[in-house]
Automatic annotation (TrEMBL):
<dbReference type="GO" id="GO:0006281">
    <property type="term" value="P:DNA repair"/>
</dbReference>
<feature type="domain" description="Helix-hairpin-helix DNA-binding motif class 1">
    <location>
        <begin position="55"/>
        <end position="74"/>
    </location>
</feature>
<feature type="domain" description="Helix-hairpin-helix DNA-binding motif class 1">
    <location>
        <begin position="95"/>
        <end position="114"/>
    </location>
</feature>
<dbReference type="InterPro" id="IPR043519">
    <property type="entry name" value="NT_sf"/>
</dbReference>
<protein>
    <recommendedName>
        <fullName>DNA-directed DNA polymerase</fullName>
        <ecNumber>2.7.7.7</ecNumber>
    </recommendedName>
</protein>
<dbReference type="InterPro" id="IPR016195">
    <property type="entry name" value="Pol/histidinol_Pase-like"/>
</dbReference>
<keyword id="KW-0235">DNA replication</keyword>
<dbReference type="InterPro" id="IPR047967">
    <property type="entry name" value="PolX_PHP"/>
</dbReference>
<dbReference type="InterPro" id="IPR050243">
    <property type="entry name" value="PHP_phosphatase"/>
</dbReference>
<dbReference type="GO" id="GO:0003677">
    <property type="term" value="F:DNA binding"/>
</dbReference>
<dbReference type="Pfam" id="PF14520">
    <property type="entry name" value="HHH_5"/>
</dbReference>
<keyword id="KW-0239">DNA-directed DNA polymerase</keyword>
<keyword id="KW-0808">Transferase</keyword>
<dbReference type="InterPro" id="IPR010996">
    <property type="entry name" value="HHH_MUS81"/>
</dbReference>
<keyword id="KW-0548">Nucleotidyltransferase</keyword>
<dbReference type="GO" id="GO:0003887">
    <property type="term" value="F:DNA-directed DNA polymerase activity"/>
</dbReference>
<dbReference type="Pfam" id="PF14716">
    <property type="entry name" value="HHH_8"/>
</dbReference>
Length: 600
């Protein structure tokens, strides 16, 4: 039996209970108990299914008996009495209001009591009228900050990170797949195309009995509201506010419907144009022969004409004289032209991936030890090597490793390697070295030289002019021991914009000096942007797909990074993580040698 919430949702629920208790002025011990329980859950590697098994939660330090009950109730029903009661007494716009940065429970209380704030719109008005600044404990500065926070929320409303959307999509897909009435089930839309930001979910299901499928969809435990429900389609609102649409079709239409609802719009427009020129009409029901080639308009009956029998999307593209186009590529970036010539790339796959680079351990701000990360990389993921790249000394906010501690870290890695090398696995000594404001690196050359892999990244001073930032990155790229340029744009999706930088120049210099460009798989980053990968590849750049993991679970970020690489037209030969260990090492060696020679 599936659970109604996932682990992240349970953690969020506990945090919200803590917030609401504090908002109500409840006993601080009770507030802390819920906050601690949320943190305790976050630090457990087990799945939620394991955690809610009898007696398990009670063994965890920081989770008492009554909170264990709350967690089980929420896991099974999707919510809990404690939260629902507290929520009743909070302002109606609470779910939005708590997303505003720097707005804690006590401040929210003051705003509600003194200014009658109910929603984010109320708060925005009050700020604009200067009423918030006059409240005791607020002031002009905090008014400005609240306004900026509201702006940000409004800007990103209706958008979700790919990883969050995927979680919901898989839960719904699994339910639909279990239905005997469902012949085929597929998530479509931008999620299937692996877009970094998703606005809604689309599902296409083939079935002879659509009512049964629709009923299962609208009653799914992730659904909070039905927006519309018909005989072949339905729309619902999910727990996180995202909309999901379902379309049920007959089996003959499935391939065409899946193609149609996968998009993108631009790709489909081109494909329909191509079909028309070949004497066909392509729509969500299928590919039809047209009687007269002159009529470009859709006939009144979308099923008019002889329908070609197409068992799959492969057959659909084939009927149009094209190679099969992977969903990730359907963005009208030249894929139809390439498919026509049979020149589509053989996209990199997770199975091609051999070595994981750029992971943080407990030596800096990671939550998992080096030994545990290595074990997971080797046993769970079947990878051959893993580079530990903890933060460098200037990164005090992330507990950066001091030079005098590196010796001990390296000794620890040597000891782990003595155990793992006989099993065909190796941990590499690396670092994520900060690029300082002037483009120099945060460790001296002799320290970097001793590293088997150096990722260089910007973590501070984002507000520079484009010229300054470009020069800063170029200086770093040319550094003889800067092997990989990490998260190039610095963006945090739905939170922080990329800094201004001249990508053309960056790619030119990286290509000239051989510096590898990172595709950071952290779902909040997905940086380098896929739109830039194809151009960089054409300029001769190699890429490293890195999880930037800060925990054992974070290793799974590789999957998101591979999505970006695929979307960016990359093949295994473009991705250095696909190299066997010895070849990877010799690549880094050659790269450094080449740079040192250029610098002479
Ligand atoms: Zn970083
Ligand atoms: Zn990192």
């Amino acid at each position: 039996m599936g659970l109604a919430l996932d682990k992240a949702a349970i953690i969020q629920l506990l945090e919200r209970i803590a917030f609401l208790l504090e908002y109500q002025g409840a006993n601080p011990f009770k507030v802390r108990a819920f906050a601690n329980a949320a943190r305790a859950l976050q630090n457990r590697p087990e799945s939620l299914e394991e955690l809610v098994s009898p007696g398990k939660l009670e063994e965890i330090e920081g989770i008492g008996k009554s909170i264990a009950g709350v967690i089980r109730e929420a896991a099974n029903t999707g919510t809990c009495k404690e939260y629902e009661e507290l929520r009743q007494q909070a302002p109606e716009g609470f779910d939005e209001l708590i997303k505003i940065p720097n707005l804690g429970p006590k401040k929210l209380r003051a705003l509600v009591e003194n200014l009658g704030i109910r929603t984010i719109a109320d708060l925005e008005n009050a700020c604009r009228e200067g009423r918030v600044a006059k409240l005791p404990g607020f002031g002009l500065k905090s008014e400005e900050k609240l306004l900026a926070g509201i702006e940000q929320i409004k800007r990103f409303a209706g958008q979700w990170l790919y990883a969050e959307a995927l979680d919901y999509a898989l839960r719904i897909r699994d339910t639909l797949e279990r239905l005997p009435a469902a012949i085929a089930v597929a998530p479509a839309g931008s999620l299937r195309r692996c877009k970094e930001i998703v606005r809604d979910l689309d599902f296409v299901v083939a079935s002879e009995t659509p009512e049964e499928v629709i009923q299962a969809f609208v009653t799914h435990n992730a659904v909070v509201r039905i927006l519309s429900q018909g005989t072949t389609k339905a729309s619902v609102l999910l727990q996180n506010g995202m909309q999901a649409d379902l379309r049920v079709v007959d089996q003959e239409s499935f391939a065409a419907a899946l193609q149609y609802f996968t998009g993108s719009k631009e790709h489909n427009t081109k494909l329909r144009g191509r079909a028309r020129k070949m004497g066909y009409r392509l729509n969500e029901y299928g590919l039809f022969e047209t009687s007269s080639s002159s009529s470009e308009d859709e006939p009144a009956d979308p099923l008019a004409g002889r329908r070609l029998s197409l068992a799959s999307e492969e057959e659909l593209y084939g009927a149009l004289g094209l190679q099969y186009i992977d969903p990730e590529l359907r963005e009208d970036m030249g894929e139809i032209e390439a498919a026509e010539e049979g020149k589509l790339p053989a996209l990199v796959r997770l199975e091609d991936y051999r070595g994981v680079l750029h992971c943080h351990s407990t030596w800096s701000d990671g939550r998992t030890s080096i030994a545990e990360l290595a074990e997971a990389a080797m046993v769970e993921w079947k990878w051959e090597y893993l580079a530990i790249c903890d933060h460098s000394q200037v990164a005090t906010y992330a507990n950066g490793v001091k030079i005098e501690d590196l010796r001990r870290q390296h000794a620890e890695i040597d000891a782990i390697n003595r155990k793992l090398q006989p099993r065909g696995f190796q941990v590499l000594k690396g670092c994520e070295c900060d690029i300082l404001a002037d483009g120099s690196l945060d460790y001296p050359d002799e320290v970097l030289k001793a590293m088997e892999l150096v990722v260089v990244s910007v973590h501070s001073r984002f507000q520079m002019s484009e010229e300054e930032m470009t020069e800063r990155l170029i200086r770093a790229i040319r550094h003889p021991y800067a092997d990989i340029l990490g998260h190039v744009s610095g963006r945090l999706l739905l939170a922080r914009d990329a800094y201004a930088v001249d990508y053309q120049r960056i790619f030119e210099v990286a290509a000239e000096w051989g510096t590898i460009i990172e595709i950071n798989g952290d779902p909040n980053r997905l940086d380098l942007d896929w739109r830039l990968c194809k151009r960089a590849k054409e300029m001769g750049i190699k890429f490293a797909v890195n999880p930037d993991a800060h925990s054992r679970e974070g290793l799974a970020n590789v999957k998101y990074g591979i999505n970006v690489a695929r979307k960016g037209w990359l093949e295994p030969a473009d991705v250095v993580n696909c190299l066997p260990l010895e070849e990877f090492k010799s690549l880094i060696h050659k790269l450094r040698k080449r740079k040192l020679e250029k610098l002479k």
